[in-house]
Write a structure and sequence with these properties.
By secondary structure, this protein is an alpha+beta fold. It has 2 domains: about 5-205, Jelly Rolls (Sandwich); about 215-274, no CATH class. The chain is about 25% helix and about 15% strand. The strands form 2 sheets. A 6-stranded antiparallel beta sheet has the order 1-7-4-9-3-2. Strands 6-5-8 form a 3-stranded antiparallel beta sheet, with no helix packed on it.
Length: about 270
């Protein structure tokens, strides 16, 4: 994505709280991920969790990087990662990866913001960026993400006892929706007869925040040592600003024997001082 296009999308996010970019997911990746999801749902016997947050007819999987290396392609995608780097920080973290396969009969999820636990008064700078990847068409009928445009500018979180105007973020398969973490949104109701809505969420957060999904325990050490350096950085195996997150002076990756993400605490500061 060129700088002009990126800036135009960022302007839309600034105004509306989200944007939709079509034709981001290549046909090859679209097929690969759908095949992997189908296999994992069968192998792991994934079933709906049965609550209003996670759904009554929705199959969810978390911590996807540990489940298949095909998912490694998504957080570092060249047309998606720049949004997190610009809206958050070049040293942002991967907060979570989630598969949400919304089945027929699902009810609408409650409107929420993904950074709703942050105690800084709203409106505020983005603390999280959520990207929702459409691996099937997202339609009003089959559960397209619902969104309240401009809600990232509101000075409060949604009240679950109230009703709010919202729209369906319809998009064709292959699209990615980029959402400011303060924007109100939810999974939609699936009123179709047999149309499953497959979406994957890749979430980023500020580099100094606690991640929603624990990457350190979820990812096997041998997998981490073979990760591309940028992905390992996003997972938190380097040091934020050269200081935060060290283990006895070493980066988590260095501590675990990954030379590509080995870093010594305060080395950047010492280099600047020299």
């Amino acid at each position: 994505m060129d700088e002009t296009t990126l800036e135009a999308h960022l302007a839309t996010i600034e105004e509306q709280g989200y944007c939709i970019i079509e034709d981001v997911i290549s046909p090859a990746l679209l097929t690969e991920i759908k095949d992997v999801v189908n296999r994992l749902e069968d192998e792991l016997e994934i079933a709906p969790r049965g609550n209003y947050a996670e759904g009554f007819a929705t199959k969810r999987m978390y911590n996807l990087l540990d489940k298949d290396r095909a998912f490694w392609q998504m957080p570092v995608h060249e047309d998606v990662l720049p949004f997190a780097e610009r809206l958050l920080d070049a040293e942002c973290l991967l907060s979570g990866t989630t598969c949400m396969n919304i089945g027929p009969g699902e009810v609408m999820q409650g409107l929420h913001s993904d950074d709703g636990l942050v105690t800084v008064p709203r409106p505020r700078m983005p603390f999280m960026v959520t990207t929702i990847w459409a691996f099937t068409d997202f339609t009003d009928e089959n559960g397209a993400t619902r969104v309240v445009p401009g809600s990232h500018k509101f000075d409060h979180e949604p009240d679950y006892s109230k009703q709010y105007d919202h729209i369906a973020a319809e998009m064709p398969a292959g699209s990615v929706m980029i959402i400011n973490g303060g924007t109100w949104h939810s999974g939609g109701a699936n009123n179709s007869e047999d149309d499953w809505r497959l979406g994957l969420s890749v979430q980023y957060c500020q580099g100094w925040m606690r991640q929603q999904q624990n990457q350190y325990y979820a990812i096997k050490p041998e997998d981490m040592r073979e990760m591309p350096p940028r992905l390992a950085q996003l997972c938190g195996y380097t040091l934020y600003r050269g200081i935060m997150g060290h283990i006895d002076g070493a980066s988590p990756g260095g501590f675990m024997g990954a030379d590509a993400v080995d870093e010594t605490a305060y080395s950047r500061i010492r280099a600047t001082a020299d």
